[in-house]
Amino acid sequence: MKLKANLFFFLEFLAVGIGTMNLAAAQGRAEKTFVYCAEAKPSSFNPQLATDGATFNATSRTIYSRLVEIDRATSRVVPSLAESWVVSPDGREITFKLKSGVQFQTADYFKPTRALNADDVLFSFERMRDPNHPFHNVGGGVYPNFVSQQMGALIERIEKLNDLTVRFKLRRPEAPFLANLAMDLGAILSAEYGAKLMADKKLSNLDTLPLGTGPFGFVWYEKDKSIRFRAHKNYFAGPAKIDNLVFQIVSDPQLRIEKLKRNECQFVSEPLPGRLAEIKGDPNLKLMSQPGPNISYLSLNLEKSPFSILAVRKAIYYALNRESYIKQVYGGNAQLAKNPLPPMMWSYNRFTPDYDFSVAKAKELLQQAGLPNGFETNLYYARVSRPYNPDPQKMAELIKKDLSAVGVNVHLVELEWQEFLKKSRTGELELSLQGWTSDNGDPDNFLNNLLSCNSISSGNNRSRWCDKRYTFLVERARVTTNIRIRTKFYEEAQEIFKREVPWVTLAHGTVFKAARKNIEGYKISPFGFDDFTTVYFK
Asked: Are 184 and 50 in contact (CB under 8 A)?
């Protein structure tokens, strides 16, 4: 798919040699073209339809904005498109006052005639909430994070009180509701653009030719190769410091580093651990790092034989030498994972016992399960570097080796990124390497979003595990604002998780980013996304 480019933008790129990505030779104004070597293509140009970081970087952190955001320093909910809000005493009504004069981007395919108003908020949420909405089934009709957060059941109605005031009426109080609105599911789309697409009978363009209020407007997508954006000069928070932003899609992590060294891109995420010292020693590059609120895990699909047997799941846990993975996959730049929550997150249960590496114990459990000679299975992965797992292929190979020692014959299956995401959501994979990074700093984002019975239908629960006591606890935690009570519920939920073993928890990875030395203004997000709004050339 090759989408129509803004002619001026395209000619400017040709003038500076962007067609060959030889930015090292570019001079003058071309220095305001910033190229990000991205590890994967987006699954959509609407973040409401996605769960993957590649899509969120290319959409909700560039094209779109939300009513609220999470402050990086404090993890508190702060204003964005909404300048303020009021919560009713019973916690069931949240009334948002929108900022006045927020402008949508202008594109070749649509030129807005008005600023953001309440109609856009209703349009964006009703599209996900109402199965009869004309856009609901466009793009597949699956809104995984909206479903996992049970937004459809939670929201009773959304009311437009006036052009700049919107009220959400909830069926019950919901502690993480505001934080969940800061997730990528909260992207605000243009109702006016939607009406034009309805009139033109081109509804699918809403998700392929996007339009939002964010810092960069969409220009061009050359399928599997690059995405091009232009700075939104009327961005309500102040225009970006670069004129043009390019996502060059480079799945090979080695090649990403070579392109960075040649100045064909100015920024890469998740550089391979084996090349960190090289990057650090290069006078033209700089390396940034930060502990990551993430989890890497091996998902065991309980709907696939023999993973419905608890003894089998425990045997796999004991069979894996996870400490060795920290050295061989992460280069020591990770922490062994015990719980599904990262240790930095409140309500982390430090008292849950872990499973030690023991080949003998694994074999004993397989014997108890009636599988003394082991069994055959498939392990699926995508060779895409993520903050929680910089080298999935190496991880898969190590797991295969460890499981073979206890009689489990593993066939490794590498899938293309989008196919991997799709088959993970639909429960087709027996064993798969998965991971997650916090969207909003709330434990609910892990414990409910990834592991409750309710998250199976959204596809976020990759293991298809449903424990009623566990789900009861995380549901109770959602409806109280008392942190101490929520913590107790979450601590018990982690104990159940550890006993039932729907995952083998692997690691919490340190987040690394590499950039050219002359790049300033980038700050690592604790929530796993890359935001280039404040980036500039020194």
From this structure: yes
